[in-house]
Amino acid sequence: MERCCLTLRLEKSLQKRRKQGTYRELREDAGSYIDFSTNDYLGFAQSCELCAFIASKRNECKVANLGSTGSRLLSGNSAYCMEVERSLARFYRAEDALLFNSGYTANLGVLSCLPSSEDWVLYDELIHNSSLEGIRLSRALRKPFRHNDTAHLEELLSKVPSSKNAIFIVVESIYSMDGDEAPVMELVRLCRKYRNAYVIIDEAHGVGVCGDTGAGLLEAKGLLEDVNSMQRSSREILCCRIYTFGKAMGIHGAVVCGSQTMIRYLVNYARSFIYTTSLPPEHLVTIHYVHEFCKKSSETRNRLQHLVRYFRDKVIEESGIPPKALLHSVSAIQGVLIDGNEAVSWAVDEMKKRGLMVYAIRAPTVRRGKERIRINLHAHNTEVEIDQLVKALAFVFVALSKPKSRI
After folding, report:
1. 258 and 292 Cβ atoms separated by less than 8 Å
2. Contact, 33 vs 240, CB < 8 A?
3. Fold assignment, 68-279
4. Contact 252, 290 (CB under 8 A)
5. Gyration radius of the chain's alpha carbons
6. pLDDT digits (tens, 9 = 90+) for 276-333
7. pLDDT by residue (tens digit) across 333-392?
8. Domain spans of the chain?
9. Euclidean distance between CA atoms 282 and 66, whole angstroms
10. In angstroms, rounded to a whole number, what is the distance separating the alpha carbons of residues 303 and 15?
11. Check: CATH 3.10.580.10 for 28-46+297-400?
């Protein structure tokens, strides 16, 4: 039977990806691995203590419905949902907060409606796809700046025609592929110089792991407390903050924090909020109390930072690993460069054979020549496990220097 043109076209596209080494597929990994891949930095997703704590709170809250029954503007809102948002606003030191179903829909919703077609959006070249899609949908004037390059950003700011229109600078607090921090102090300084400039920041990989209470990189830098009336406060400049719960918080969902006016605007214009079924009541309880648990998890955060330092020291000491292979990062996300999609995929397969779960980040997700093994460290990893990881990295680098040994 002759196959339809659509099927042939789709198969041709898939075959092209196979040849390029960029084909993706869902896999069910069999066996037991040491986890160096998940975003569960603090181990919350598998914490028996946290599960028991949230289960007890669900019983106290006496949640009746399985589902929310509709979108927030129809039947899906509740007094408890708004109570959770108020508690999140307090946790993140904001005037107001609005829940979204995921970090992707939060970024998409904010960036598709906040900038107008006459505004400018200047964005770091390494921001997440969800932010790029939102910016594209906004139809705003837009231009990328080189990653974490504030000199290049200021050059672009100086060239934006002076007007009453806003300039939105879009960044991530911790970058998901490189693990490095945004220069947030310098961004605030630039926005005080260019007074119609604002920052929209995605704290997906900062929340939970940074700051005294886990409220993110901005808390760690003291920018959530700045309310100096003599100049533009950092809270005004950091006009919109997106916090995702699917990483260190170990659950699902996201919240956008900002002024009351900002949140009211999103309720009216953010399509990914308006036209979707709201989060179920049981999950609202989970969101509420995982933040209470996070406040008390400073020892876990300290443990994670110790392991980050331990890993980097061990890699630097290991003669088999080229010094330039390790990306600069003080976060739980560590990158080890291995040039080429085929080479990095082979290296990851070899590490899995040694019981280590890591993932290859290949082009075009990153630039060609910047392919890498992405290593996520966790508070529940041990020094012995990290020693195994470093030895495996040394093995693959030695093997890659002798191509015939891979046959």
Report:
1. no
2. no
3. Aspartate Aminotransferase; domain 2 (3.40.640)
4. no
5. 22
6. 999 999 999 999 999 999 999 999 999 999 999 999 999 999 999 999 999 999 999 9
7. 999 999 999 999 999 999 999 999 999 999 988 999 999 999 999 999 999 999 999 999
8. 28-46+297-400, 68-279
9. 7
10. 45
11. no
